[in-house]
Amino acid sequence: MMERRLRPFPRLLLFMALFLLFLMDNALSWSPSKVLRSSSSRFMARTTTERRQIKNGAFIHRRQLTLESGNSGTIRSRLVPITNTWNLTIWEWDKPSNVMEHYWASQQDVFSRKHYLLDPFGLVSWPGSVVATRLLHRYKSEIEGSTVLILGAGPGVEAQAAAMLGARQVIATDIHPTTLQLLRYGAQEAGLDGVIQEQVLDVCSDVPLPQCDVMVAADVLYNEHLALHVGRRCLEAVQKGVKVLVTDSQRFTDLLPDLNQRLDAEPPMQWNETRLDAFTGSGVMVDEDQTYNVTVRVLGIGWESC
Fold this sequence. Notes:
By secondary structure, the chain is α/β, with parallel strands linked by helices.
């Protein structure tokens, strides 16, 4: 008996079906390529994706983009859970450990440079940003219609949250333009770039704070020098009647001793603490995601309670 051969037309249909399945699978992971242009750099989407299983058996898709000029590198999307029904998507540096090596090598004169190094701490999200965002959500009525200032905004968790909670304007500041590029891309994708304004600001400088109603500083106390200046900025804000929210998950140092002295606070202000379970984020010393439980310190000034 002669073997029957598959005719060309069915083969073509099979090829088309497989091709359509390929497109459908990628459509779940990718949006059309987008370019973010600025005076210093731009990002171009690439067809690279990471699929990672989460607890309920579903998959999350992390997109990767290439930085075409300026500081060379790639960034990846991250889904940040805030509540059971509210997630934010931000963009982080793909290999923060490489940046960290250069940062520590030049740490001895980093504060005297006119052109600051790329800050590895600002390229990824931290537990303090999630806790700060949950508190903003709790006080949504205070955020609606207000101007919210973010010090050390990083990839923009708190900035996106404040905009979504109804802030009239969000001023997201950081020391390095590339960090603000990450924030801007996330804001554009979320449709929030009309509310969020990025601004380069050195907390340690003498430049006055922008006018605002609420000031947030989440996980920015990396060393004693910076903590002193964040405390000085808290004093500046409080003297203008601004509500202040500070969170700290890493406990490198403490701003309260100096701030209590400056404010002549009686009784002295103290940190409150809240526990954050199963936080997942990029480590700056290693490139793989880290999942851990952490107790976050919280300082609220001008709020009923924090």
